[in-house]
Amino acid sequence: MPELPEVETVKSGLAPVMEGFVFKHVQLNRPNLRFPFDPDFVARVQGMTLTRLSRRAKFLQAELSSGDRLFMHLGMSGRFTISQSETATDIGAFAHDVGANPKHDHVVFEMSSGYRVIYNAPRRFGFMELVADGAPYRLDDLGPEPLGNDFNAPALRATLKSRKSKIKAALLDQHVVAGLGNIYVCEALYRAKLSPFREAGSISIRDANRLVSAVKDVLSDAIKAGGSSLRDFHGASGELGYFQHTFAVYGREDMPCTRPRCSGWVRRTAQNGRSTFACDRCQG
Ligand SMILES: [Zn+2]
Fold this sequence. Notes:
With 284 residues, this protein is α+β, with helices and mostly antiparallel strands. The protein has 6 helices and 11 strands. A 5-stranded antiparallel β-sheet has the order 1-7-8-5-6, with helices on one face. A 4-stranded antiparallel β-sheet has the order 2-3-4-9. It has helices at 4-18, 41-45, 153-160, 167-172, 182-191, 205-231; strands at 23-28, 50-56, 59-64, 69-73, 79-84, 87-91, 105-111, 116-120, 127-131, 266-271, 274-279.
């Protein structure tokens, strides 16, 4: 499942060949992904300029010259492939699932940059949705972007005040902060030395400061790793794959804590149906 840093990396890979360019030709190879395509999808996108490409939570948002917004989601295994003549660059492929099968090429954008951008999604959990200028969208009431200035300690503390849920569940609530998944919540709580089982409303301003910094740091580090994976790519092989992550606690069940001078162990607990990884000593 692509997390926020992967989506940010995909955005960085797509922007140079899409932003500021015209959709010269749009081809849909099926009527639906997770949701049906807009019946006028091709007519509404073809011929438009993509004026701005950005990321909101785990969505890519393409602003079109018509005022429409095109939202694109990778789902579980979606990817974009950029190709020009004989070379192809995969962005958004998983390490265990490299090599796009062309039968899953669902959307093909020919851009005026001279590049072809192909959306490939074997499991079709992803989707593309067009939203008319000014129309509401499901992302409108999400919380602040974790890397934006609106996600800060006083605001987070105010949002969490009087919440009885655990801090981990609160951070996964997309109305508290947008786009954080299980992995990065575990990593951020570890980095902030906070127990995932703390009541969200009990977080002090000092805790909130540590937590906000930790969230921004774990995401920024992962985005940096993704950026270097884009730079390291040398075209010819056609494979990029998702970058390899290193996690401090996630997936490290029953391994010693890696924090210097901590003699604790990483434990896995089921919390709201998902695995929580935390050190049993330094996350007080
Ligand atoms: Zn520890």
